[in-house]
Amino acid sequence: MPKFKHCFIMENGTYKEIPYDTLFLGEERNPQFQTRYFLPFHDCLMEVSEADYKENYRQKRRQKYLLEEAIAHNELSFDALDTDDQSGLNTLVDHGAISIDELVATKIMVEKLHEILGELSESERELIKNLFFDGLSERQLSKKTGVAAMTIHDRKVKVLVKLKKLLKNYK
Fold first, then answer.
1. In order of start, what are the domains of the chain with their CATH numbers?
2. C-alpha angle 65/66/71, rounded to 5°?
3. pLDDT tens digit string along 45-71?
4. Whole-structure pTM value
5. Which residues pair with 25 in a beta bridge?
6. Rounded CA separation 125/138 (Å)
7. What is the pLDDT of residues 107-126, one digit of tens each?
């Protein structure tokens, strides 16, 4: 069963519908359409210009980057949670069961943590982000950066000692 119900190609300035099986031969794209650009729209595949194709994917990459940055800085908006199926507002957890005291205490702790993390160097923050927020193991980070896993471990220990000292001295 084809992924798309309709496929449209541009011919002589107008769109012409073609069968999915004409555009794709099994899993491979038909060589006749190899140099053409297509974007999905609902249940259709539509031919677009190269510029429109590149702009569409540039916008998608930018949106993904902005979402990752927002998550990293705890700055999500309702729009960032939107999907095709539902509004971001509907995906939020009901905080009605949490007391206002707990919310205030959590906010204060998060603000203090941001201030303390701000006292770390950029490389120390990046190390903490990769290991604790992104969930990379020391070995994965070693492969990603080309730095020896033992060096990463030693740096992590030093940063954690520094964080402990900063937390102890924080008033």
1. 6-48 (no CATH), 61-91 (no CATH), 97-169 (1.10.10.10)
2. 100
3. 888 888 888 988 888 888 888 878 877
4. 0.41
5. 28
6. 15
7. 777 777 778 888 889 999 89
